[in-house]
Amino acid sequence: MDLPERIKRIREGLNLKQLEVADRLGIDKSQYSKWEKRGKKLTVEQLESIAIALGVGLKDILFGQEEIPQDTQDFYKNKFEKSQLQKAFVVDNVLKFILNIDTLLQKKMVNYAVGEILHPRQKDYQAFVRCYCELGSEVFTLATWQKPIRKEASHFAHLEQSGEHLFDAQQPKQANQYKDAAFANIQQNHELWTINFINLTGFFRAAFEQGK
């Protein structure tokens, strides 16, 4: 079995569509489709990313698991569920850590940008909450929650303008509704969160350098 066919078999064994895997990778469906077809032409980093998105090991993609006696679909589903539990635990604990940064550094550091991202032509409406810290002229986005919403539920749909729209100081109720939704049941909804570990590390490095 060649590499593209093995990736496809694992994905279909998990009942995942290409669009779902693409969303987990943060790329569009057409790009993921090209990745899946390229097989051996992919870089190791790209193959590792696909493995993580599918919840399997890199060796499973490269060499397969034909020697495993269990039904292939059940096997990969179990691995995926275990991987999802691990991811949920990590996201939950990292967010708790981010929320504790003010206490850790003994000053107000964590800020929130709350609003919606609209693409009316594509009928795409997303609510978002962004956690970020500022140090001098640098802005570090640490984590972002993003969830699809209906046009009828959007607070900015009447603007008919694509792009990001933020709630201002006169709209605390709407902003708090999204924040409450973002931080409720994190482990069950961890896939709505994206943690930027590079920025998190960079922020603390800069903060401690500044404090010297």
Automatic annotation (TrEMBL):
- Please list every transmembrane segment annotated in the UniProt record, as residue ranges: none
HTH cro/C1-type domain: from which residue to which, for each copy? 7-61
Among PROSITE patterns, the record links this protein to: HTH_CROC1 (PS50943)
| InterPro entries listed in its UniProt record | Cro/C1-type_HTH (IPR001387), Lambda_DNA-bd_dom_sf (IPR010982)
Q: One MF term from GO for this chain?
A: DNA binding
Domain of life the protein comes from = Bacteria
Supply the name of the protein: Bacteriophage CI repressor protein, putative
Upper lineage is: Bacteria, Pseudomonadati, Bacteroidota, Cytophagia, Cytophagales
